[in-house]
Sequence to fold (310 residues):
Amino acid sequence: MSSESNRKIYSFTRLYVLPLPAEALSTLSGFGVAVDTGKVIFLNSLKVNIICSVFLNLLVMGRKIKIILAVIVLTVVSCKDDKVEDPIPEIKYVRLTMQPVFGSSELSLNDTITTAEGYKVQFTDLKCYFSSLKNGSNELTQSALFDYASRGIEVFKVPGDPAKFASLTGFLGVDPNYNHDDPSAFPNNSPLNIMNANDMHWDWNPGYIFIKVEAKVDTNPDAITVLDHFVNFHIGTDQFLQNLSFSGLNWSDNGSGVYTAPLRLDLEKFLQNGAQIIDLKTEYTSHTMSGQELLSEKVIQNFATAISVY
Fold:
């Protein structure tokens, strides 16, 4: 094979070799195509070699212009054979979390905390619905169920571009547009499907429970802890739906196309929201029934205020 420095040597994984007359080989060698005795090496396509063989035989008959066309054919077919497929776009997911805290300390269920009144409290269940979350015209998710006991701090994980959701608006509770729909008619993966809603849907009062807070309390501020006072707040119905708005969300890249933004639920603020205080000794139960409107409103307002960007 020729070794002159100004000749380009081609190598291929599959080679088709065609015999050619000496005049054709000499001419090709002058164009920088690798040649061997009585042969010429082309691209790894039999179709290309046949085409080029025709042009080279024409060349031998004196039509040297055909070598230019042969090179063009080689280039076009080679580019077609070597076409690079377009990369598959990465699917991005946004994940919202909510960490319960009491003041500056993170809180797990059944941790014992002390209120401003001196009560010892263990929260045993924390659940709530978010719905119609969006940023302007960019809709993120129809609904999400926070269930601290079963799912930890995750509120939702859905496909979405984090660049479009630096802010979010929506509801604490279930949007009235579907609060009263048949819970068995929602898709199986919807938080509103009855199998996922479970005890967050009322059978006796068509609609969803918006927030659920349950706790055990010792209302006697002494050295002995006896958690014998039970708190049950189950708040729902359209009239107690709360507006939510979050800005400055920081979606951090967790890898694998997942971006997470954290919220926090401050249960100290839930119990004492400025002058709006929930005294668990006397205000300890509401199932959003007639006669419980004032406490129901206070409970869900305090809960909404207790949620903020972490």
Residues 1-18, 42-48, 63-80 have pLDDT under 50 and may be disordered. Residues 108 and 259 are 24 Å apart (CA to CA). The first strand starts at residue 17 and ends at 19. The helical segments are 22-30, 46-60, 66-81, 148-151, 176-179, 194-197, 267-271, 293-305.
